[in-house]
């Protein structure tokens, strides 16, 4: 993270899939470094329940220099569940199929508030309350003005008793400012049928691909995936891009992994340290 200019002090939460060494050993050095850098803000670590004794053990020996609170948030779920929720972002955990309890994570931007169409704003002169209502996607009902009827842009007049109300529909006078983006992190796992559904439509899918397809029997035995398993998941999920990684020590030729996955899913990239995958905001108007 330091090498690529990412501030480790800004870390707020860490999401651990499972407690195999290749997924947790780096954490302890990181915690010590943060301690030495004088961090005081609490740090959340989302991880399976059996991470607790490991963390306790580490802190009992090396915790003296760590002045901040290390909060372990145990993850336990057998279907996608929201484990982190802010105004702009939600994070879901979902179980994977590995040798021990393992979770994938889906990072998803929330649907943004709708924007008011400029012409409609000029036409109707919405009050602050009405703007709030419309931005939430709800319709506005107000008494119709004397000349409102034939010429208005949107909405329609509806009669209730003798009153004439003007119904202004949010869908007519607002628009979605951008399309929310998502990133799914899937490591380590053997393929299973629900997975593609759980990461459906994600813009960027990271999926482990430990083996080339000719070692499929190894993959099955060790509860891992091949390039083709990862590509098939991306295809079934309708993902925007696929990033693969977690290569077996038996073959580090990333071009071979990439080429093989691309036979099924052309927008595949074999991850290297330091790679950046852009997910530009797609403006809707
Ligand atoms: Zn593992
Ligand atoms: Zn692993």
Distance between the termini: 35 Å
- SSE order, as H and E? EHEHEEEEEHHEEEHEEEHEHHEHEE
Small molecules (ligands, ions, cofactors) in the structure: zinc ion
CATH class of the domain at 179-285: Alpha Beta
Low-confidence stretches: none
The CATH topology of the domain at 179-285 is what? Metallo-beta-lactamase, Chain A
- Order of strands across the biggest sheet? 4-5-6-13-14-15-16
Number of helices: 9
Any overview of this molecule?
- The protein is of the alpha/beta class.
- Among the domains are: 115-175, no CATH class; 179-285, Ribonuclease Z/Hydroxyacylglutathione hydrolase-like (Metallo-beta-lactamase, Chain A), CATH 3.60.15.10.
- It contains nine helices and 17 strands.
- It has helices at 21-36, 52-62, 118-124, 128-135, 170-173, 195-198, 216-221, 227-237, 254-262; strands at 13-15, 43-48, 70-75, 81-85, 89-95, 103-109, 115-116, 140-143, 156-160, 163-168, 174-175, 178-179, 182-186, 204-208, 241-245, 268-270, 282-283.
- The strands form five sheets. A seven-stranded mixed β-sheet has the order 4-5-6-13-14-15-16.
- It is globular and about 80 Å long.
- The relative contact order is 0.10.
- The model has no long low-confidence stretch (mean pLDDT 92).
- The structure holds zinc ion (ZN) (2 copies).
- Residues 20, 22-23, 188, 246 line the site of one zinc ion.
């Amino acid at each position: 993270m330091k090498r690529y200019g990412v501030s480790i002090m800004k870390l707020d939460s860490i999401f651990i899939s499972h407690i195999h060494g290749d997924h947790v050993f780096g954490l302890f050095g990181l915690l010590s470094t943060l301690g030495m850098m004088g961090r005081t803000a609490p740090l959340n670590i989302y991880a399976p329940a059996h991470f607790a004794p490991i963390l306790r053990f580490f802190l009992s020996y090396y915790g003296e220099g760590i002045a901040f609170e290390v909060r372990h948030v145990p993850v336990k779920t057998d279907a996608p569940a929201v484990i982190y929720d802010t105004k702009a972002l939600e994070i879901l955990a979902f179980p994977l199929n590995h040798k021990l309890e393992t979770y994938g994570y889906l990072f998803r931007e929330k649907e943004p508030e709708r924007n008011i169409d400029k012409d409609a704003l000029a036409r109707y002169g919405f009050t602050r309350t009405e703007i709030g209502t419309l931005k939430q996607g709800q319709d506005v009902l107000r008494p119709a003005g004397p000349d409102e009827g034939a010429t208005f842009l949107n909405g329609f007049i509806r009669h209730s008793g003798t009153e004439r109300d003007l119904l202004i529909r949010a869908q007519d006078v607002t628009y979605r400012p951008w399309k929310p983006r998502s990133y799914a992190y899937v490591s380590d796992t053997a393929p299973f049928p629900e997975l593609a559904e759980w990461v459906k439509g994600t813009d960027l899918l990271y999926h482990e691909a430990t083996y080339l397809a000719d070692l499929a029997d190894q993959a099955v035995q060790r509860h891992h995936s091949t390039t083709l398993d990862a590509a098939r998941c991306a295809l079934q999920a309708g993902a925007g891009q696929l990033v693969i990684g977690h290569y077996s020590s038996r073959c580090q030729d990333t071009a071979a992994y990439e080429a093989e996955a691309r036979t099924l899913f052309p927008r595949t990239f074999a991850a290297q340290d330091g790679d950046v995958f852009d997910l530009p905001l797609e403006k809707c108007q």
